[in-house]
Amino acid sequence: MGPTGPTGADGEMGPTGATGATGAGGGGGLLYYGGRYNKTEQTLYLNPNTPTIIPLPLLMPSNGVGTGTPDSLTIEHPGVYEINYMFNGSSSLGTEVSLEVRRNGIAIDSTEVTHLLAVGVESIYSGSVIEYLSPGDVLELVVFANYALNLTLGIGVAATLTVKKLDLEFADAE
Predict the structure, then answer these.
(1) DSSP state of 23
(2) In sequence order, what are the residues at sequence separation of 6 or more whose Cβ sits closer than 8 angstroms to the Cβ of residue 168?
(3) Which residues contact 35 (CB under 8 A, 6 or more apart)?
């Protein structure tokens, strides 16, 4: 073979190809979340061994979590969620008072918190758990005691219930 000759001029550019599909989101943000809270000073009467739903009339921002049912959150998308809850209150009787989150009226065992309350002294209950939740699950924050008593919600924000979906595995296809 002989020597290679000089490189020729570039040819015309061809037509542009079709645009590809948009890629998946970059992550980092929560897909679904929501919450409720109470900052109204009020007293709840507790009957012995009877769960009482804590009023949560005020809404936090939400996306993909239903807030249409009073004092509760409704899960709209399946997945693994972080549940956070808090209550600040005092009792008219020195006794143990328990707080828990209920799913469809049944306690989520890992959420039960019990404190011995002193008369008229505010006590803060709080917790955070990770649970698998299904569409239609309704979450409520409840309180109960072995004896009849008046439970007074603390000053300022006295109760909160929030959920945050953590996993992408069960994200709905858009």
Answers:
(1) P
(2) 27, 31
(3) 59, 60, 61, 62, 73, 160, 161, 162, 163
**Torsion angles phi and psi, residue 19, rounded to 5:** -75, 135
Q: Where are the beta strands (DSSP E) in the chain?
A: 33-38, 43-46, 52-53, 58-59, 65-66, 72-75, 79-91, 95-103, 106-107, 113-117, 123-133, 138-145, 149-153, 159-165
Alpha-carbon gap, residue 59 to 56, rounded angstroms: 8
Residue range 61-84, pLDDT digits in tens: 999 999 999 999 999 999 999 999
In our burial notation (b when 16+ CB lie closer than 10 A, e otherwise), range 81-96 reads: bebbbbbbbbbbeebe
Terminal CA-CA length for the chain: 60
Ramachandran bin of 53, using left for φ above 0, alpha for ψ from -120 to 50, beta for the remaining angles? beta
The token pair at 70 is 């009073």
Per-residue pLDDT tens over the stretch 25-63: 445 578 899 999 999 989 999 999 999 999 999 999 999
